[in-house]
């Protein structure tokens, strides 16, 4: 951990610089895969699955039978845990439903909004050593609550052509009925363009490696909306002397184990806490299975000693972390003054991993400073808002002359006439 | 107008195809301008302003004095109209404020959301023959209501280095204090990267030509969020025999006059209305100042006769129009069943131009079918949602074992331990 003691704020930009991540993905290769799948559909998907996942698939679709037999393989304890987590996620996202009233901006001029579910959504769940079933819940449950009509999930098959049972269980309790064994760029392409088997989606959600991220960026320009820009995990912890160093160390390690490019920061006005946390980090990392990964991330990470809480707030808001833990006596007050963060964890008993799995909040969050402008996934992410207006003859009589004057000044005479013709001619 | 009589739904894809727009913008040129301004700031902005706007500017910033003297040049009637429109826009966007409660997903596990204004926003208003002061209201008023801390507006200067007084008046009543005479790609670059004069924005809003659109797309990958993909205007009108053909013709023309690539559609179950509307179009277009433009758009446009309202709904939702007028006896019921549209205008007395200027709804809307996944601009567009959670010791005692089980199954042991260490060790 690099320590910065009372750095003046002109040097902060350097301190909060994200680790440079070099994308291993090649634009040309991604482009080729996209256009090949656009053109050749399932045949091309099959080719890439053979090439990248080393498995031949006749049928990508996971059958209902496959789901049912997989579920039997999930440990009862895990089923119980997933069920409780799903309940919490459901409660929190249900509470995000909005109700809209009608605003009569002028007599006879009624305006209102309505949130309408996005009809067709595609969810991507990456493969890898461990099954990310928690992300299935985080995307599938709000999609179902929002009322999306068709929800498709793509995830890569293992070498025997299977999907981890816990992923299938999470999909099943999230009411996802269409699951395909397709991974990587080919999955994004299949959902963006549609194939003979896979439905074309209006919006694609989910994390992925640099290839998937590049594919999502490319299709987002022309074809299909995407959830948000994705990047390596981040955690910033604000602590004072009421914080428990061992807890903080465990949180920093929980983000650090994601990958060598994860970034963790500790920000405090209390120099002693930095030392104590570093001591704890050294102890805890020793017995960690992913110690090698965590160590690299911790080497990249920073402890920053600042003068007071105002300075801490400026620093944090400038950094705009994905995850923010506030472990200070003044946590509630500080939380109120946070402008840029994805998800905030308040107090000594709120580990970041609670939000990753089970508190109910969503773990799909913007990184790399994008929290300045983007929200994490929530119910709104699966809806769009349509606006409505209904004007009576009385309304257009008042509003008409205003439209006329403004349209005339913008030199759009057909716009003007569409008002004039109405309030100067009443249908009888 | 091309007429399609009872086309079977397999042919709809062809009918609803958007006119092909060839972007005149060159990727290489846009890239060069962006990187030059990123590197050289104001000096580069000055060069491009000289080259593209044919004017030499020492200072881009519009002074308060300049604003005050410009306002005196705006006709009192226009001031009055802008004021009323601004009031309506304010009322409707004020009503979009959301209030968030706390959800206790389990005893001791409190989760909540908060909408926080995006700190720094940049608004772009294109130049051209007519001053788009209405767009200033549509972006500036919600930015102010949301509480954005810094709002910057860029708009190109005319050849004498001035900005149209109506734009300055609209900016002034929208509480926009930082106005710069910068246009095109150079304006997007200045707001995305920041220069010595112009603040770096977290999100950039506003319409523009194909160059501006390309610049926005490019900076959105790395630097700065953008409002939405932009494209040519669209209007779809659903009519039955209760609709007034002259009104519909005036609406179709009001969209058609935007540009030759605008698209207007008339969808109905009543063949007679198509004929009547076409007759009216021919009459009304004759006296239109922008008749040449409107004519081209009308030639591209379509009238579609369908069998019943269900078919109309499928067709409209498949097309996903930016603007939708419903002029039928069943308008309210149809409006309820619309899934994909930007802004909906109900009844005979609700012209689309009401929403462009003065009803109160926002006129910045997704086009090109993006209404399937994107909302128009509203108060949320200027905020992001942060999630919060606060867990008590009692809460983590219940939630901790669930986090442990799930993290273990995802092979993230540091995640597991961040829970274990808390509920297995209470601070005394």
Strand tally of chain A, please? 14
Rg estimate of chain A, integer Å = 25 Å
User: Roughly what is the average pLDDT of chain A, rounded to an integer?
Assistant: 95
Please give the most extensive interface between any two protein chains, plus how many residues each contributes.
A-B, 128 and 128 residues
- Structural domain count of chain A: 3
Largest sheet of chain A: 6 strands, parallel
Strand order, sheet with most strands of chain A:
1-11-10-9-12-13
Q: State the secondary-structure class of chain A.
A: alpha/beta
Named CATH topology of the largest domain in chain A: Rossmann fold
Termini gap of chain A: 79 Å
Features:
homodimer, 428 residues, alpha/beta, Rossmann fold, 3 domains, 6-stranded parallel sheet, 5-stranded parallel sheet, 14 strands
């Amino acid at each position: 951990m690099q320590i910065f003691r009372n750095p003046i704020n002109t040097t902060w930009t350097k301190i909060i610089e994200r680790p440079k991540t070099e994308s291993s993905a090649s634009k040309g290769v991604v482009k080729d895969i996209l256009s090949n799948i656009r053109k050749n559909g399932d045949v091309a998907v099959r080719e890439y699955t053979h090439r990248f996942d080393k498995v031949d698939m006749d049928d990508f679709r996971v059958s209902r039978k496959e789901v049912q037999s997989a579920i039997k393989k999930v440990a009862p304890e895990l089923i119980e845990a997933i069920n409780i987590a799903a309940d919490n996620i459901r409660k929190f996202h249900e509470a995000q439903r909005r109700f809209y009233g009608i605003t009569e901006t002028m007599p006879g001029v009624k305006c209102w909004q309505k949130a309408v579910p996005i009809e067709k959504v595609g969810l991507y769940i990456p493969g890898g050593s461990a099954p990310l079933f928690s992300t299935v819940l985080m995307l599938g449950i709000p999609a179902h609550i929002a009322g999306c009509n068709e929800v498709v999930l793509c995830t890569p098959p293992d070498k025997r052509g299977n999907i981890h049972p816990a992923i299938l269980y999470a999909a099943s309790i999230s009411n996802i009925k269409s699951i395909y064994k397709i991974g990587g760029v080919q999955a994004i392409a299949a959902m963006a363009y549609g194939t003979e088997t896979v439905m074309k989606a209006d919006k694609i959600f989910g994390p992925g490696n640099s290839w998937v991220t590049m594919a999502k960026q490319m299709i987002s320009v022309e074809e299909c909306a995407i959830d948000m820009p994705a990047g390596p995990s981040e955690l910033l912890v604000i602590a004072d002397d009421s914080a428990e160093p061992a807890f903080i160390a465990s949180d920093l390690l929980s983000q650090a184990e994601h990958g060598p490019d994860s970034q963790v920061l500790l920000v405090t006005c209390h120099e002693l806490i930095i030392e104590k946390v570093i001591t704890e980090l050294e102890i805890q990392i020793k017995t960690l299975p992913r110690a090698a990964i965590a160590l690299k991330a911790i080497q990249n990470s920073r402890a920053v000693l600042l003068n007071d809480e105002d300075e801490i707030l400026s620093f944090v808001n400038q950094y705009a972390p994905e995850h923010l833990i506030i472990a200070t006596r003044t946590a509630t007050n500080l939380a109120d003054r946070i402008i840029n963060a994805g998800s905030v964890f308040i107090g000594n008993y709120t580990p970041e991993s609670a939000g990753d799995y089970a508190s109910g909040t969503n773990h799909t969050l913007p990184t790399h400073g994008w929290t300045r402008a983007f929200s994490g996934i929530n119910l709104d992410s699966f809806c769009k808002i349509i606006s409505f207006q209904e004007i009576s003859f009385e309304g257009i009589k008042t509003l008409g002359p205003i439209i006329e004057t403004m349209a005339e000044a913008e030199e759009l005479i057909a716009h003007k006439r569409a008002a004039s013709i109405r309030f100067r001619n009443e249908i009888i």
